């Protein structure tokens, strides 16, 4: 049973398992869907090594008999993630925007809502994001960190390599992670600033606390060219 909190789009619920109760909160977006804001967590980080078409077997996601001679490409991320876990799917751009606008309009509860975003980056940085649980893979996550200013966000869009930029768009993540790594995280909306509109980008400070939910090696067993990484830090 969801109980609505007065003057907010936040709802409370209790999950019971083996006599133990866990408090959970949900945020209702403009399309009527509910998103978990806090409480019960999932099954932990999912690791996966993406295989090229040449190594896929009948029954594997994206298998195509006519593509078995391709050693440096793989099925679309959408197909890969569908075979792993629905928890790895980014939150839709429409819903991130809806929750973000609510927060910008003064709804503090909306800012506490976690959304799922992803980005392509080099292997060492992806592992640092997992280890340090920060958007930029640096030590010292700060729960009180303020969002990136609009000016810095625009500089990131123009020049790149300034602040971490994540996306809701799997086609963008597919492009930047190919021959590199894909990192997927949960992050609270209050840390976000609009990034590249055309790439459905969202920027945040390097020391933003994140909850890594997935890391996918897309190097196809080859040495990674670290000079061709994502244009964000």
UniProtKB/TrEMBL annotation:
Ranges for domain DUF4765: 1-232
One of its Pfam families is DUF4765
Q: What is this protein called?
A: DUF4765 family protein
């Amino acid at each position: 049973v969801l109980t609505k909190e007065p003057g907010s789009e936040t709802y409370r619920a209790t999950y019971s398992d083996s006599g133990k109760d866990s408090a959970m909160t949900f945020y209702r977006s403009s399309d009527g869907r509910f998103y978990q804001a806090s409480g019960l967590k999932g099954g932990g980080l999912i690791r996966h090594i993406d295989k090229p078409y040449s190594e896929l077997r009948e029954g594997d996601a994206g298998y195509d008999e006519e593509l078995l001679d391709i050693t440096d490409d793989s099925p679309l991320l959408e197909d890969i993630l569908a075979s792993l876990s629905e928890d790895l799917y980014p939150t839709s751009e429409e819903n991130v925007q809806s929750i973000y606008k609510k927060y910008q309009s003064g709804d503090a509860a909306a800012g506490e809502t976690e959304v799922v975003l992803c980005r392509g980056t080099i292997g060492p940085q992806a592992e640092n994001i997992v280890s340090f649980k920060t958007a930029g893979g640096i030590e010292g996550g700060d729960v009180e960190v303020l969002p990136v200013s609009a000016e810095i966000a625009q500089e990131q869009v123009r020049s790149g390599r300034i602040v971490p930029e994540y996306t809701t768009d799997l086609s963008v993540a597919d492009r930047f992670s190919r021959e590199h790594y894909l990192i997927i995280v949960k992050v609270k909306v209050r840390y976000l600033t609009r990034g590249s509109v055309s790439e459905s980008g969202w920027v945040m400070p390097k020391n933003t606390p994140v909850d890594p939910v997935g890391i996918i090696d897309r190097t196809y067993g080859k040495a990674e060219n670290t000079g061709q990484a994502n244009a964000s830090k």
